[in-house]
């Protein structure tokens, strides 16, 4: 049986956006923080990974949100590495309120890279066995986001040019995964963001963004409550996303 890690947290004001609810980038931050803490306690954390010349790379997210917790609320964040094969691993994250109701569920797909060559490699079992994941030949696929419709029939596309700052870069020397959520949403109108709630976010990471890159974030609404997103540098697509929205209550 795989190991489940959990921690109790209070939603601080600086975790939240202007709505007073846990922001989307912070959802990703808290999830990743839980997995880092779990692996660190098992002796297979960042220090051990870097010593072995290996690193984890996030490939996909499927985030389902029932309700974003509010400032001051007590929550529990859990993570469970569930299955892996030779090259990929699935890990779940869940956010619960004090009654035990699941507020946010995240399915994620991971791979491992050689830090020097920056290339994918097979999973190093030294970092898998302590997690007690179920080993399988084939992993189920996560849903991939829809791509922008650039045809004449497609809806208009809004775009915003972005240059990563020093504070966007993590210890892997590229833009932190949580910042992609922020980048995706920059072209979305603030009034829409404030009056709507994301219910499902599907993300696929294709290529890391580095400090010296200029990228363009694009959004296309294919319906009143459905948006498609792309972050790209020249002809290279760094990441894509798809978001289902609901009107805020």
Average residue-wise pLDDT = 95
Compute the separation of the termini in Å.
39 Å
Main beta sheet: strand number and arrangement?
Answer: 12 strands, mixed
What Rg, in angstroms, do the CA atoms define? 18 Å
SSE sequence, one letter per element: EHHEEEEEEEHHEEEE
Please count the helical segments.
4
- What general form does the structure show? globular
Q: Which stretches are low in confidence, meaning pLDDT under 50 for 5 or more residues running? A: none
Assign a percent range to the helix content: 10-25%
Strand segment tally: 12
Task: Estimate what percentage of residues fall within beta strands.
Answer: 35-45%
Q: What structural class results from the helix and strand content?
A: alpha+beta
InterPro entries: Acyl-ACP_TE_C, Acyl-ACP_thioesterase_NHD, FATA/B, HotDog_dom_sf
Protein name: Acyl-ACP thioesterase
Domain Acyl-ACP thioesterase-like C-terminal: 159-246
GO molecular function, one term: acyl carrier activity
């Amino acid at each position: 049986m795989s190991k489940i890690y959990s921690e109790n947290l209070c939603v601080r004001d600086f975790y939240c956006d202007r709505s007073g609810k846990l922001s989307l980038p912070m959802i990703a931050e808290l999830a990743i923080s839980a997995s880092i803490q779990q692996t660190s306690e098992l002796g297979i954390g960042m220090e051990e990974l870097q010593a072995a010349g290996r690193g984890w790379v996030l490939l996909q997210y499927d985030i389902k949100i029932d309700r974003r917790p509010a400032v001051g609320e007590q929550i529990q964040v859990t993570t469970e590495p569930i299955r892996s094969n030779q090259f990929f691993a699935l890990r779940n994250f869940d956010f619960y309120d004090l009654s035990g109701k699941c507020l946010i569920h995240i399915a994620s797909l991971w791979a491992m890279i050689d830090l020097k060559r920056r290339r994918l490699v097979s999973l190093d079992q030294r970092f898998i066995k302590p997690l007690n994941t179920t080993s399988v030949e084939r992993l189920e696929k996560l849903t991939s986001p829809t791509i922008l419709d650039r045809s004449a029939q497609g809806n208009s596309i809004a775009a915003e040019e972005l240059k990563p700052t020093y504070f966007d870069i993590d210890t892997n020397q590229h833009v932190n995964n949580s910042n992609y959520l922020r980048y995706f949403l920059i072209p979305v109108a603030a009034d829409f963001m404030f009056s709507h709630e994301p219910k499902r976010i599907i993300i696929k990471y294709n290529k890391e963004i580095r400090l010296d890159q200029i990228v363009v974030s694009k959004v296309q609404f294919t319906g009143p409550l459905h948006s498609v997103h792309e972050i790209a540098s020249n002809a290279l697509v760094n990441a894509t996303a798809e978001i289902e929205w609901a009107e805020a209550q």
